[in-house]
């Protein structure tokens, strides 16, 4: 059996989620934050794999142009 506090907390959370879902004022800001988060993940991956990526790119340039520089 749920206590009165648990029921009030659930109702409050539910109403806050509904208000957040229907409120589009902060949507643009949230999209920007999500884009920055994805970019940060990509940058961390590239940083961790930079040597492999660099070698791969150098090999492709050499294969395509024959240039070794």
What tags apply to this protein structure?
69 residues, mainly alpha, 3 helices, elongated
Describe the structure.
This protein has 69 residues and is mainly α. It has one domain. It is built from three helices and no strands. It has helices at 4-22, 27-48, 50-65. It is elongated. The mean pLDDT is 82.
Task: Output mean pLDDT.
Answer: 82
Shape, principal axes of CA atoms: elongated
SSE arrangement, N to C: HHH
Domain count: the total is 1
Put simply, the count of helices is: 3
Largest sheet: none
| Strand elements, count | 0
Going by helix content, strand content and strand pairing, the class is mainly alpha
Radius of gyration: 25 Å
Instruction: Compute the separation of the termini in Å.
Output: 74 Å
Would you kindly provide a brief summary of this structure?
The protein contains 3 helices and no strands.
Topology:
Elements: H1 4-22, H2 27-48, H3 50-65
């Amino acid at each position: 059996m749920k206590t009165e506090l648990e029921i009030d907390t659930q109702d409050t959370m539910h109403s806050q989620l509904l208000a957040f879902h229907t409120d589009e004022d902060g949507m643009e800001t949230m999209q920007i934050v999500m884009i920055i988060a994805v970019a940060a993940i990509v940058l961390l991956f590239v940083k961790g794999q930079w040597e492999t990526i660099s070698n791969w790119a150098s090999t492709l340039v050499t294969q395509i142009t024959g240039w070794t520089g």
